[in-house]
Amino acid sequence: MAFWVGDDFDLQPFPPHTTSTIPLLFADISSRYRPLRSQRSDTMTDWGPVFVAVVLFVLFTPGLLFQLPGRSRLIEFGNFQTSGASILVHSILYFAVICILLLGIQVHMYIGS
Q: Among 35, 37, 73, 86, which has the highest number of CB atoms less than 10 A from its own CB?
């Protein structure tokens, strides 16, 4: 079945009489039954994962606060340099800590009306 994007950016069945819109084909038609934006209830948004990801990205940037492994030592602080090995180590640390915080502890911050 063909769909087109309506004025509220919700998928509507493609009207056969209009030719100005380009039909979009979707395998999953469950989004067709979403309520329009005016009918949606106001829900609070969970900003916990976004906040945790941004803070951890800054903390685990190689060379900003620390670098593991360093160029001349095992760990160096604030040298503003990086290497391929430190990028690999920091990305593994980032992945491990973000999985613990988001999946294990389930950090949530609800912001909204």
A: 86
